[in-house]
Amino acid sequence: YADKRRFKTSSWLSAGFIDGGREEQVSQSLEASLRDLQGEYVRLIGVDPAAKRRILEMIIQRPEDTPGEPARTTTAVHGGHGNGNGHSDLSVQVRSLLAQGLKIATEHADKRRFKTSSWLTGPAIETKSEAGIIRDIEAIVTENSDEYVRLIGIDPQAKKRVVEMIIHRPGSTPASNGSGKASSYSAPASNGASYSSSGSLSGETIAQIRSLLAQGYKIGTEHADKRRFKTSSWQSCAPIESNRESDVITALEDCLREHSGEYVRLLGIDAKAKKRVLETVIQRPDGSVSSNGSSKTATVAEPSFKSYASGSSGGGTATLTSTLTAETITQIRSLLNQGHKIGAEHADKRRFKTSSWQSCTPIESSRESDVVAALETCLRDHQGEYVRLIGIDSQAKRRVLESIIQRP
After folding, report:
1. What's the pTM?
2. Could you give the CA distance from residue 14 to residue 29 in angstroms, rounded to a whole number?
3. Are 396 and 338 in contact (CB under 8 A)?
4. What strands lie across the sheet with 53-61, from one edge to the other?
5. Is-contact 361 375, C-beta < 8 A?
6. Residues 9, 201: contact at Cβ < 8 Å?
7. To 10 degrees, what angle do helices 86-99 and 130-143 make?
8. Which residue has the higher pLDDT, 303 or 217?
9. How far apart are CA 279 and CA 203, in angstroms?
10. More confident residue, 172 or 141
11. Alpha-carbon distance 248 to 133, whole Å?
C-alpha cells in the first residue's frame, strides 16, 4: 500500500503475506486490508514461492475508491503462471491488456541482443479481437522460436508503454510462456504511477533515471569491490545503448545481479559535452540500495570529498573544503547544471518513521559554493537527525531528487 506521495515515487509499504490457501480466507483478508487502508493505493501481489519472484502486481484500490464497491484495476504481469498451459496464460494476459484499453505489440531479440536490451520490433498486430491477437502472437513466437519474445501493452492516449512481459525464451516450446525467469521490470498504468522494479532499484533511483533520460542524457554503470572502492578504481558494466526507460532499468538490474556484493554506481552522461553529470552509488556490498528513506540504511563509511572546484566570475576555480561526500557534491553539481533548485529537509528518528520531514532554511542561491555552505549549516544545526538533499525542478514545480545525506 502507498499514500499519494509514496505512490508517485513507487515507495510501496508491505502489508504482509496472506496466510491460508482457501479462496474465501484470502478474500476476507483482502477486504479487511482494504477497509484498514481506505484512502490509500493498495496493490495485490502474486508471488511464485518456488522461483521467489513476483508474477503479478495489480492495483485493487485507489484513494477515491470505497471498500466494498468495484475498483478499477491496473495489472502488471511478470511472466507465466506456471500451470503448463501456455495458451491459457497468454489468453489471460491478452484479455487483461485489452480490458484496460491498451494496444498490443511484440518485440524479439536473440541472445546477444537480449544482453544489451537491443530489442527488435515485431510485425504490427492489426486485429482487435482476442482470438486474432493470440493467433498473431503465436505466429510471431513460432517464427522467432530461438529468440526472446516479449509482449508490449501500450496506452494509445498517453502514447507510452505500460506493460512489458517476456512470453517466450530460447529453448521454450513455441506458444508457451516459458518457465524461465521473467523480466523483473514492470511499467505503470496510465494513472500516472511511476515505473517500478522488482525491488532491486529504489523509487529514488528510478526517478533519477527518468530525470536523466528526459534531459537527453545517456545512462551508464560502474562497479567496484571493497578494495577498488577505497582507491576509486571503478570498472564499467556492460554499456547501455538504449535510451528507453524499460531497457535501462533491465540493464541496471542485470548489473546489480552480476556484481552482487560489490559497489555499483549509476552514471548520467552528457554525450554531446562528453562529461558526466551524475555519479551516485545505488548498491553497496551489504546489500543496501540507494533509498528515499524506506529502504535499508547504508552502514559503509564512504570517502569524504575534501575539496571541489566551483566556477568563479573570472573563469578560474576556487577550491573549498567540504564535509559532504563526493557523491553528494556530484549530485549538487549535476542538479545545478540542469538548472534545478536545491533544498534540504530534516527529521528526527520519530518523524523519520512516519516520513514527516521538516524543511531546512531555503537555499536561494544557485552558486555551488553557497549551496554547499547552506547544506553544511543544515547538517550542523540538525546533528543527530536525518537530513536529505532535495532537487527541485522549479518550472515543473516537482522534485527530481530526494537523497539522504546524513543519518543519526
Report:
1. 0.32
2. 14
3. no
4. 42-48, 53-61, 74-77
5. no
6. no
7. 130
8. 217
9. 17
10. 141
11. 28
